[in-house]
Request: fold
Amino acid sequence: MKLKLTPLALASAAAIMSGAASAQTAVPSKPTFQPKSYFDAGANFVMFDGDALSNPDGEYNAMALQGRYGYKFTSIFSVEMDIAVGVSDAEADDNVFLTTDTISIGTLAGLYGRAGFNPTDQLHLFAKGGFVGGDIEIDIVDQFTGQSLAQGEGGVNGFGVGLGFEVNATDTVFLRGDYTRYDTESDGGFELKADTYALAVGIRF
Reply:
């Protein structure tokens, strides 16, 4: 008995074989990156340079609360802006001129470009750079009389650069830590530089 193959049978067999071959060679595609916004908030420890006023040996340490909003365009590049509000003053004794010097933070804000990479699925490392500005108040008081010898308030602006990391707690929640170096100048030409260390909790949406 001879097997008779009709054109319809041949077409059906070819379709089945083609589908089986496609199933064997199909490779799962990697998920594409979706641009996301993010927000974080936390504490910012500000260490002004010791020679910020007239005290090269002094330490001017202040605390601020900071909030940040950013937008991640790709897995590498982001743009972000932050603002910090002072909650404690930076104060130090000047043992040369026998004064107590205080630097009070009103606000400090920055706009940065950011680039980074993921060494693991849970960790993101980055570097950032941009423009910073804000307003501060300075008060110099005689240690013996308590009299204010000099006082001023004004704006500062300049540049900021830094490094940081993000650790994923979930797909949307992360812990962030970063270091930023401020190099600013007041409206009157007074230089004010600081190292800042921030720790925050954030969400992506």
